[in-house]
Structure formats: structure tokens, C-alpha cells
Design goal:
Elements lengths: L3 H18 L3 E5 L5 H7 L8 E6 L3 H8 L3 H7 L4 H15 L3 E7 L14 E10 L2 E10 L4 H20 L1
Parallel strand pairs: 1-2, 1-3
Antiparallel strand pairs: 3-4, 4-5
Helix pairs in contact: 1-6
Length: 166
């Protein structure tokens, strides 16, 4: 599991890598509630690489702000590959960034189901490729309480952006 210091180090490395490559990142966050954006903006110089973050906790915000399709939310639920992919792609479009990361999950202590137990977190990354976006989604299962699940999600999202810069 991650801790606050490891998140700070990941965010610092990410800001340095984005700066070195001249790329920018944007975020769309549900269960992490803006923590990914906070981790990035805690680093001096981050304003050159981060200009846009959306906290879309409610499904209505996912639809209205980011452009997630209602049919995707109804058919797959907010914690799904389809929805985080649409969140990432929509955020990339809105922000003009080079890379967008999206996260939606079940952090607990309630809300889990047999299909999506507490600790289920979906991640989506969209990388600008000319006028198109390459979208990648992944599901992870984290253990612990709400704080630990969210903390692990932030670290995983930051590391995922780092991997996609290269």
C-alpha cells in the first residue's frame, strides 16, 4: 500500500517527467475526490503541467461535465471500464491536456456488492494521439479501510500516468 510520502514522491517524479517532456495532465476523479490533483499541485512547478481537474463524484456530474453517456452509467455502473474510459476521454477533450487519468471505485465502508466489492477501483487513461485518444482501462482490488483504498488509488493513478508518458 501507498502512504503520503510515497504519493508525494510519485507526484514529484511525475511533475518532473511531464516538465521534461513538455506534456500536461488532467484528472477526472470520483472516489479519490480530488486527491490526485492535490498530490500533483502540492509539487512546486506543477502549474506548468496541470491545469485541469474534475471531481465528478455524482453520476450527474460525470454526464454533465465530462460527457459520460447515461446509457453507460445505467448499463455498466459508475465503477466500470466503460465509464472510466469515457471519463478519461472526456477530460482529455475538455482540458486540451496530453494525458488524462480517471478513477471511480468503491472505497467503503459501504456500497460494495458481490460483483463490485469494497476495494474495487477502475482506472482510465487517455493519451492524445494526434486528433484521437488512446484509451486504456484497468481494474484493481485494494484492501483496507476507506483511507487506505483511496490512498492506494491515488498512487496507482499517478504511476499509471508516469508509465504512459514514455
Amino acid at each position: 500500500m501507498a502512504d503520503h510520502e510515497s504519493i508525494r514522491k510519485l507526484a514529484e517524479a511525475l511533475v518532473n517527467e511531464l516538465s521534461a517532456t513538455g506534456k500536461t495532465v488532467a484528472t477526472a476523479e470520483s472516489c479519490t475526490g480530488g486527491w490526485i490533483g492535490k498530490a500533483i499541485t502540492d509539487i512546486p512547478g506543477s502549474s506548468a503541467v496541470f491545469g485541469y481537474g474534475v471531481v465528478s463524484y455524482a453520476n450527474g456530474a460525470k454526464e454533465l461535465i465530462i460527457g459520460v453517456q447515461n446509457v453507460s452509467l445505467e448499463k455498466h455502473g459508475s465503477v466500470s471500464a466503460q465509464v472510466v474510459g469515457e471519463m478519461a476521454k472526456g477530460t482529455l477533450r475538455l482540458s486540451g491536456a496530453d494525458i488524462a487519468v480517471a478513477v471511480s471505485g468503491v472505497a467503503g465502508p459501504s456500497g460494495g456488492t458481490k460483483e463490485k466489492p469494497i476495494g474495487t477501483v477502475w482506472f482510465g487513461w487517455a493519451v492524445r494521439d494526434g486528433s484521437n485518444a488512446l484509451v486504456d482501462t484497468r481494474c484493481e482490488y485494494f484492501t483496507g479501510d476507506r483511507e487506505l483504498i483511496r490512498e492506494a488509488s491515488v498512487a496507482y493513478a499517478l504511476q499509471g500516468v508516469r508509465e504512459r508518458i514514455k
